[in-house]
Amino acid sequence: MQELPLQLVTQMIADRRTIHKRPELGWTEFETTYFIAKRLEKLQIEFQLGGDFLDRASVHGRDEQEVRTAIQRALEHGVPKTFIKKTQGYTGVAGIFDTGRPGPTIAIRADIDAVPVQESQDEAHESVMGGYCSEIPMVMHSCGHDAHTAILLAVAEWIVENQDNLCGKFKFVFQPSEEGVRGGLAVANGGFLDDADVLLCFHIGTKCKLGEVGICEKGFLATSKLNVTFEGVPAHAGSNPEAGKSALLAACNAATLISGIPRHSKGLTRVCVGKLIAGESRNVIPAHAAMEIETRGETGELDQYMVNHVCRIVNSAAEAFDVKARIETVGSAVNLETDHEISVRLQKIAEQVESVERVAYYNDIAASEDCTWLIKRVRDRGGKAGYFLFGCNHHGHHKTDFTIQDEVSLPVGLRMLIQYLAERCSG
Ligand SMILES: [Zn+2]
After folding, report:
1. Cα distances (angstroms) measured from residue 93 to each of 111, 112, 413
2. Distance 145 CA to ligand 1 centre (A)
3. How far is CA 402 from CA 199, 394, 410, in A?
4. Which residue, 70, 137, 167, 363, is the most exposed by fewest CB within 10 angstroms?
5. How far is residue 174 from each of residues 118, 145, 235, measured CA to CA in Å?
6. Distance, CA 174 to ligand 1 centroid (Å)?
7. Which range marks the domain in which residue 230 is found?
8. pLDDT digits (tens, 9 = 90+) for 183-206
9. What is the domain-level CATH number for residue 253?
10. End-to-end Cα spacing for the chain
């Protein structure tokens, strides 16, 4: 097993805490992007910023107003204007390090965004005790992407320090906007990973407790996130109701009908109308309604089956109430499919890590992850991919008291990755 230099681990924990303090939502990660870029620069690793490596036509769910506000906040927090300009308004970093010796191209992906959750101020909460609680109201790294970012930075540093013993090329994807599965497709379609022989993706926590490593080969569902709006005609509800066209009634009917879409016999399917806001006031025929809907399926076809039904119902409800409907896709992911050969390698490595007591396959997660777009892109071009989880004792992702025991948990993720690289790319 590769030794983990103490300095590398110390730096990784400090990085995680620095990032934890300044969490940013998807597509607004300007401070985080700057932090990563500065480090890669220091390590003399070549990199591109979001504006250069993302396919803009595939960007989902990016709000211009939110981006502008975030840029302002980043400027006030010391990110130089020249740097913001270089991003062209798009977050994320893609790094390349070439050892100059023939060998495989290995890519690793970490997501960098946070969640719209207010962090717990409880005295016993890990980050309150450590003095690195989120400084941004209603935003928190409550999914552990701060840990992912810090680990990948540590891997990059390890590669630079050990370059004389390594061969091939390394690619680092610091992906923006994983939450809401909004950023993955833009990274994939940007083509940065098209020459990767292997892509490794990972996540802290989920079903794994501290001391546990999980390998995933399938189980993340394909998903589509849809925003639906209905546009009606307002009218006074007492004096001339016949002149009104109710967007609220169209939306309510769509919501109940959508919940009745027959589930498919070929595999898991899901649908959720998670949000419905409609109406202006008590005595006005409601002219506006907005819904947030998601579908999931065990395969892309099963997800599409659910999406087709949702679209048909939305359009039919609009017609029934004589209002206009608009459907916008604001996020998507395909289902997970990785390569057994990589899984076995990851499993063997995990079994050698001293602090890991249990290694198991988790193929029934039933959540979604948009690194699946990156994995699909690499595999479609003949590359291979692997996905692993490493544990922490959390109280639930996306929760106000999410916690990860970084000093014990993060080294496991780091060790898994550098051991893989040491075995596959020793020069
Ligand atoms: Zn996550």
Report:
1. 10, 10, 20
2. 6
3. 28, 6, 15
4. 137
5. 24, 10, 50
6. 13
7. 222-333
8. 999 999 999 999 999 999 999 999
9. 3.30.70.360
10. 17
